[in-house]
């Protein structure tokens, strides 16, 4: 036993003298000083010795342990100092342990989508315009060629504000800003209007009494259905990050003529693939059309001079949540307004 | 609206494409298809007729005409065998229309000797398929003709209509002359309608009625009366086909809350010329199915006959608006398909004559839509427009809002979008006054009643709900609020599990706001709130900028919170922040000379506000004082009862030279003197 101890010491001294790398120090520590190291073995062997020998051997083993620890630490210090470190941390920190994540902030998906959409249109020279949520019936309806007592007023169930005599309402679409903008500007113009709109209707996974719309209006000398299709395809391709085809079907909105319903489809299946109800890969996205002459007229713009048409334009309005729902595969519109952090933190 | 494919086919000559193909064609060129369902050997097509085409397409004939244009099948109208005699007046019936604005046309045909009974099977089946309940042959025929032509008809039992006795009557069965008066109802008049419920309606001057000499016998354009309805004993009938003012019918229908197939068609406006064929068709079917003979000629009130409209169409403008190289020949072909006649006025100019049924076609652009949709929008190639390259103007409001949103994101807040509506009970709970809250006349429910007067209401709820799953909640929102008027608000809410120290919570939320005010370059004062409806007094403050109260910060009251966790909330007038905040950044010289740091301790009364102390220090006008920092507020052992010890770090710096200790001491003395003058006790 005593022989073993002196052998171990000699062997350890030799090995330690040769060590130059920190990794080898770790191995050395494990081999001699570790829980299953050689010194531990010596201590375990003590119990087999007769009592008188056990005491001596025990003392020797303790001595060996302390000596080794001392020289090991000295050597460690040497090596770490050589490397510019003050302390041996190797093996002392469990770098694999889990940690709580640092908190960051989150912008609501509607804000993100609004920014993406307006940024796309900015690249095409569109200006962002904002409006009020409370509107007059003139701007929400009359100025947009929806006369009083016309069935088209029923198309969008309106929240009329008290007192009713004020003829004020919560805007049912962002289109009033078409009229307001045109009143104070001369063509050509290109604008987009993001904003909250209201409809008095029952709520379900696809409907809310409030939602966000993005209105677009482009008026210039030669704006045609063909230009509209090109700009829509570009805008949708950029937003959905894949090539989008646009399809027009007849639609009716009093403030446009001709009027369209817009369907979209991506080459890779894109938005439609993500939609449960995409028929033949096509997905109904929004309403649009060529600005109705009465809308220009109501805003005080002279579209024709002696029969000659000075300018034409298109307008469209799409639901921002609807686009985001398709893009991110969100099944229920109501999630946008519940403000559950488990939802908000996903985006 | 529902349509029967087999029925539609009756008006189309030659082989008609399959139902699915017809539906597709309609979808791309005319109307959206809501449904297509096989029913026996027929197909039920649910067509979402566009509101501006209700004039001509709320009918099988209208849709069949549309299909004929798309498929190339020839459209054929059913032949009528018996001819109604045309005439204006009758000895048997006196017709009086009080206003031709209310009723541009009214026709009545008397048929005597009919046998009322069940309709033949084919008729009953057709009505049932389209959702109408068969009643008796006469009523069913009027309904059938409405579905076929779009013209609502009504059948009266002639014998139940009151008339006046006339001496020399040619009419053998009756010895009286019936009177039909189309007039506004008198206030207080009532009518029971011809339906199972026999509902009684109260009428007034805004409602147009058909009346006999005594009382209303039908609500014009909406529903017939019970008393003059057809029953199994009816022998003599009056068939009405009329045209009513659409706005009048719409308003009456809304007022009475009574929508019928008839009112739906009238309120969308139909041409008075639709009556001629419909009256003839109904007469034909009645004679064929129920027997009877015409008594007298058609009584027809039609003072201003509606004529076909003429619209000028410039072929160059067609090309320009559609962005399509379409030839004049193509345009003319499409007009012929539509059955519109036209005259060539010049090289590019056509004068198009539009049938009276197409009330939707008023201007040149309407015709261009017809050409576009029939040519096919899919055949228009997308081409980017050539425009002047002009960069867009930035919207300052949008940019500012986004910058503030970014700031709170950087502060690790999550952004919320809450509903604009709040429950009715917030008025009491949050203590708002009548008159300042804004709300719709037709709210959805008591839970969605008032427009939100502040963001706090929903944000508190957001915090409470999220605390169930989260250790920490930091949420902000920027949105419109409605208190007296519409304005933009910024709301911030913060809560943590186990955060019991109210002071700590308050100051943590305040520290976020301080970042905002610093970024905006705003000097802010906080004044304690002594009484508030939803904030805890003592732990809440008004936020004052430039002597104006621009917001609140504080601990939400327990009776509103109702959870064991503390919720801290702040709300600011966003419009004010936008108008007063200065986000401009500029370079400031980094000081080259070292600062001198001194500590100052003094005793103050416990009630003393920090802001007061700060004021006293600065009022001493110390030169070179760059910064003061409160590092300790202590009371307890060693401090006199009722007093607090304030410990400050004072930083002095001269940007132009190194400060000497003497210089600094001179300034410090000024401060100390002013503090002492104000009753603070300096600790040496």
Describe, in plain words, how this protein is organized in 3D:
The complex is a heterodimer of chains A (347) and B (684). With 347 residues, chain A is of the alpha+beta class. Chain A has twelve helices and eleven strands. Chain A folds into two domains: 2-82; 109-344, BirA Bifunctional Protein, domain 2 (2-Layer Sandwich). Chain A has helices at residues 2-18, 22-33, 38-45, 51-82, 109-123, 137-140, 176-184, 225-240, 270-274, 293-298, 320-328, 341-344, and strands spanning 127-128, 134-136, 168-170, 189-198, 210-220, 244-250, 256-266, 283-291, 304-305, 308-309, 312-319. In chain A, strands 1-4-5-11-8-7-6 form a seven-stranded mixed beta sheet. In chain A, strands 2-3 form a two-stranded antiparallel ribbon. In chain A, strands 9-10 form a two-stranded antiparallel ribbon. Residues 270-278 of chain A have low confidence and may be disordered. Chain B has 684 residues and is α+β, with helices and mostly antiparallel strands. Chain B has five domains: 2-75, Phenylalanyl-tRNA Synthetase, Chain B, domain 1 (2-Layer Sandwich); 93-301, Phenylalanyl-tRNA Synthetase, Chain B, domain 3, CATH 3.50.40.10; 309-379, 2-Layer Sandwich (Phenylalanyl-tRNA Synthetase, Chain B, domain 1); 397-580, Bira Bifunctional Protein, Domain 2 (BirA Bifunctional Protein, domain 2), CATH 3.30.930; 596-683, Ferrodoxin-fold anticodon-binding domain (Alpha-Beta Plaits, 2-Layer Sandwich). Chain B has a seven-stranded mixed beta sheet, sandwiched between helices. The chains are: A alpha+beta (347), B alpha+beta (684). At the A-B interface, helix 5, strand 1, strand 4, strand 5 and helix 8 of A face helix 2, helix 7, helix 10, helix 12 and helix 13 of B.
């Amino acid at each position: 036993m005593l022989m073993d101890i002196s052998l171990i010491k000699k062997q350890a001294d030799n090995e330690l003298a040769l060590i130059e790398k920190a990794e080898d120090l770790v191995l050395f520590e494990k081999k001699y000083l570790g829980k299953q190291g050689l010194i531990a073995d010596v201590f375990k062997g003590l119990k087999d010795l007769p009592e008188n020998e056990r005491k001596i051997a025990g003392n020797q083993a303790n001595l060996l342990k302390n000596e080794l620890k001392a020289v090991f630490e000295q050597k460690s210090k040497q090596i770490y100092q050589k490397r510019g470190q003050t302390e041996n941390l190797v093996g002392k920190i469990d770098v694999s342990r889990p940690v709580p994540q640092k908190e960051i902030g989150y912008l609501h998906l509607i804000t993100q989508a609004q920014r993406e959409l307006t940024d796309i249109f900015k690249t095409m020279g569109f200006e962002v315009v904002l409006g009020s949520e409370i509107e007059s019936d003139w701007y929400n309806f009359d100025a947009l060629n929806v006369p009083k007592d016309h069935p088209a007023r029923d198309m969008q169930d309106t929240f009329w504000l008290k007192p009713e005599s004020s003829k004020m309402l919560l805007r049912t679409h962002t289109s009033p800003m078409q009229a307001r903008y045109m009143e104070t500007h001369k063509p050509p113009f290109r604008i987009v209007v993001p904003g909250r709109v209201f409809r008095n209707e029952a709520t379900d996974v696809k409907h809310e009494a409030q939602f966000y719309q993005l209105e677009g209006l482009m008026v210039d000398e030669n704006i045609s259905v063909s230009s509209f299709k090109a700009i829509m395809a570009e805008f949708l391709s950029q937003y959905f990050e894949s090539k989008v085809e646009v399809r027009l079907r007849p639609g009716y909105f009093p403030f446009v003529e001709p009027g369209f319903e817009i369907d979209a489809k991506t080459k890779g299946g894109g938005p439609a693939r993500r939609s449960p109800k995409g028929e033949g890969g096509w997905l109904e996205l929004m309403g649009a059309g060529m600005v109705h002459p009465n809308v220009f007229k109501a805003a005080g713009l002279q579209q024709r001079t002696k029969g000659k048409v000075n300018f034409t334009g298109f307008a469209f309005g799409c639901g921002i949540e609807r686009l985001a729902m398709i893009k991110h595969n969100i099944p229920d519109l109501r999630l946008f307004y519940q403000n559950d952090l488990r939802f908000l933190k996903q985006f | 609206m529902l349509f029967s494919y087999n029925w539609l086919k009756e008006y189309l000559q030659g082989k008609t494409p399959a139902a699915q193909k017809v539906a597709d064609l309609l979808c791309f060129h005319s109307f959206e298809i809501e449904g297509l369902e096989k029913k026996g050997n027929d197909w039920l097509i649910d067509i979402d007729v566009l509101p501006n085409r209700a004039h001509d397409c709320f009918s099988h004939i209208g849709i069949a005409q549309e299909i004929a244009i798309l498929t190339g099948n020839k459209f054929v109208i059913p032949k009528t065998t018996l001819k109604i005699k045309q005439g204006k007046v009758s000895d048997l019936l006196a017709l009086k229309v009080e206003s031709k604005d209310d009723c541009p046309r009214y026709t009545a045909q008397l048929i005597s000797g009919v046998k009322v009974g069940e309709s033949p099977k084919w008729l009953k089946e057709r009505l049932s398929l389209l959702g109408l309940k068969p009643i008796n042959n006469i009523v069913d025929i009027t309904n059938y003709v409405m579905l076929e032509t779009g013209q609502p008809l009504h059948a009266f039992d002639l014998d139940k209509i009151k008339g006046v006795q006339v001496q020399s009557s040619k009419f053998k069965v009756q010895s009286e002359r019936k009177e039909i008066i189309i007039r506004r109802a008198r206030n207080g008049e009532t009518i029971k309608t011809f339906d199972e419920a026999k509902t009684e309606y109260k009428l007034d001057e805004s409602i147009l009625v058909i009346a006999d000499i005594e009382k209303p016998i039908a609500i014009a354009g909406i529903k017939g009366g019970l008393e003059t309805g057809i029953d199994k004993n009816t022998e003599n009938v009056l068939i009405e086909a009329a045209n009513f003012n659409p706005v009048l019918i719409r308003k009456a229908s809304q007022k009475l809350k009574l929508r019928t197939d008839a009112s739906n068609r009238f309120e969308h406006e139909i041409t008075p010329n639709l009556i001629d064929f419909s009256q003839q068709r109904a007469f034909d079917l009645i004679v064929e199915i129920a027997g009877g003979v015409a008594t007298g000629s058609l009584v027809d009130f039609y003072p201003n006959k509606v004529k076909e409209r003429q619209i000028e169409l410039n072929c160059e403008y067609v090309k320009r608006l559609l962005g399509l190289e379409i030839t004049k020949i193509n345009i003319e072909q499409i007009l012929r398909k539509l059955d519109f006649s036209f005259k060539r006025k010049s090289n590019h100019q056509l004068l198009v004559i539009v049938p009276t049924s197409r009330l939707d076609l008023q201007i040149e652009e309407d015709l261009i839509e017809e050409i576009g949709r029939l040519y096919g929008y899919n055949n228009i190639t997308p081409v980017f427009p050539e425009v002047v390259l002009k960069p867009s103007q930035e919207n300052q409001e949008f940019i500012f809002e986004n910058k503030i949103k970014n700031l709170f994101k950087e502060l690790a807040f999550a952004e919320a979008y809450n509903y604009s509506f709040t429950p009715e009970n917030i008025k009491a709970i949050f203590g708002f006054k009548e008159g300042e809250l804004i709300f719709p006349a037709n709210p959805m429910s008591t839970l969605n009643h008032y427009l939100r007067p502040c963001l706090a209401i929903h944000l508190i709820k957001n915090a409470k709900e999220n605390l169930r799953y989260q250790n920490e909640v930091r949420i902000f929102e920027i949105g419109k609020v409605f208190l007296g008027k519409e304005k933009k608000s910024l709301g911030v809410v913060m809560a943590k599990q186990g955060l019991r120290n109210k002071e700590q919570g308050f100051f943590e939320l305040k520290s976020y706001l301080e970042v905002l005010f610093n970024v905006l370059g705003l000097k802010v004062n906080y004044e304690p709130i002594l009484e508030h409806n939803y904030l805890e007094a003592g732990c809440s403050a008004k936020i004052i900028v430039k002597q104006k109260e621009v917001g609140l910060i504080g601990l939400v009251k327990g009776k509103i919170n109702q959870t064991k966790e503390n919720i801290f909330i702040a709300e600011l007038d966003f419009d004010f922040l936008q108008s007063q905040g200065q986000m401009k950044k500029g370079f400031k010289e980094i000081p080259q000379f070292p600062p001198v740091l001194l500590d100052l301790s003094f005793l103050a009364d416990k009630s003393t506000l920090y802001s007061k102390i700060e004021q006293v220090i600065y009022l001493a006008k110390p030169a070179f004082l760059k910064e003061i920092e409160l590092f300790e507020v202590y009371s307890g052992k060693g401090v006199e009862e009722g007093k607090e010890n304030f410990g400050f770090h004072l930083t002095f710096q001269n940007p132009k030279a190194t400060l000497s200790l003497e210089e600094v001491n001179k300034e410090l003395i000024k401060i100390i003197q002013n503090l002492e003058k104000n009753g603070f006790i300096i600790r040496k």
